[in-house]
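Summary for the steering committee. One of the milestones for this cycle was to obtain a three-dimensional model of the protein with adenosine monophosphate bound, which we needed before selecting residues for the alanine scan. The sequence and ligand used are listed below.
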Amino acid sequence: MKNIIVLFGKPGAGKGTRVSEFLVGREELYEVLSVGNLLRKARKEQTELGKKAESYMDSGALVPDEIINEIVIEGIKTSNKNVFLDGYPRTVGQAKAMLKAGIYPDKVVNFDVSDEVVLQRARDRIVCEKCGEPYTTNSFKPPKKQGYCDKCGSKLVRRADDDEKVVRQRLQVYQEQTCPVLNILMGNYIKIYTVNNAQKDADKKFAEIMEH
Ligand code: AMP
């Protein structure tokens, strides 16, 4: 049986960075299903999904549940590896649809950071335009070659939704629509672990939780 692990937390809490560190040497065992990356790819390729998602993403809103549930539930079912869910479920409706589809995550890792940390990280973040790998313009995780992805060599760009006004909107959406998801998961006896993701040893804490 494959494990399903939900990566929970504010947008910009550092979920993607933490998991990509953890995956070094474990790529064969795990797959990361990042809804944001899937949507960005769809937009770039201008697929039906990408065109539908565009305006929601640019304003900091969530894409409607029906669209998201279909792609994520299908993605989980067809994967033959352990799955990290990055950015799902993000609404009560998504959590309910996931459970209704018989998908019960093994654990939830809640990455806790303050709004101030999120705002600063958005200012410092650059991502690979092709594979979505995140880097920073400060000394935390700079690319080896400035402006290019270590993994696939593609160009690094700023995300439009890292604009400060949009980040504030996304934090509000998180508070109103995503936070209540934790109660639904807890109510279904899914274990929630919390990592303070602004602390230096957050990577060790995360690795410990993964061993549980
Ligand atoms: P992320 O990269 O996870 O911060 O996601 C970027 C954007 O994609 C979000 O601001 C939403 O517009 C959209 N998005 C990502 N995950 C979801 C989701 N589970 N439900 C609805 N929209 C999502």
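Key point for the committee: The mean pLDDT is 93.
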